[in-house]
Amino acid sequence: MNKINKIIIRLIFLFALRVLMPDAAYADDSLIYEIRVPFIIGGHAAAIHGGGSFDLGEVVRIPDKSRWPSYTASAWGGESSVAASAVNAIHLLMSVEKEKGRTMSIIPLDTIAPAAGTDASIVIDAPAGKGLFGAWAPPVGSRVSVLTASGDIRPLDKTNVPVGGDSLVIGVYAEDMPYMVDFENRPGGRVTSWSRSDAKVIARVIRPVGGSGRFEGTLFQDGGRIRANHSGVIDVSTSPRGEIGGFQIIPWDHALTSKEMQGAWQLTQWMIIGPPDGKSEMGGTFPLFAGGLIPGTSEGDGLWDMWSTYGRRPLVTARLDGGEWQKLPNAAGRVDDALKNVTHLRIYFPTVREPLK
Question: Is the omega angle on the peptide bond into residue 295 within 30 degrees of 0, that is, cis?
Fold first, then answer.
């Protein structure tokens, strides 16, 4: 297909998204924007905010099946919602069957996401870590629907699978969330959520983080940024974009029950946290494992205004040996003691609101 034909197709789909289809799949004042992904090769994914449509890339492959059983933590999410938001994949939870998640994924063309599965993924010709996988990434828990060509709306699940001419619709809403969360990086350390109205301890550190590891998706994210968030992980990059290095924060139920996470009790690349009461489950809970964190904007990414462009860029900072807050130390590859001097971590949450407004 030549360049002129691609441009024509792109314009047709953007016109259809704004004119031929309903203005919003969800009638709700808290809706910030919608993501629409046409289930047709050659169609263009788009984000719709206010009166504008923003192109998110061409659909180059559609799935012929869903994935079951999917990765362990997918089952801790809400059905018909986003189960994971990352620089190299967005996983959508369709249903939970026999305590295992059934997923469909959206992935960029220039990467491979093992948890997605190529036959169960919509592939978008878009760069990893940007656009749909960066600035416009939906947070975990965002509702996912199927919009039919006739305009009907139904939840994405195992009985409502999109077909040619349908579109996936993901609604991103304004949520009341903390503006930052602090972690005391020591056994028993407090995990404190800070909001406009109060500060409260939402978890305790069971095992502190001490090193960096080779988490492949960090290749597409800058250091001190969120690489991925899902119902059982916060994945933080410690390396510049183009290099691999990072660590993960996981809830104790994931570390206790998931076979793939048993090494987290011996290795230094994981921080394990538990609930303040010492007994509740944390997987899939707000605000750390649902509802807020996203990869956010990268260099060259932009949203509808300057505040949102910078406000939806969650950052991770650190204190070394109890000193002042500073940038997270840079570490690429597996370095078991790369973060040994980190005594505190802080995650700034993304926002589209100016302070005090």
Answer: no
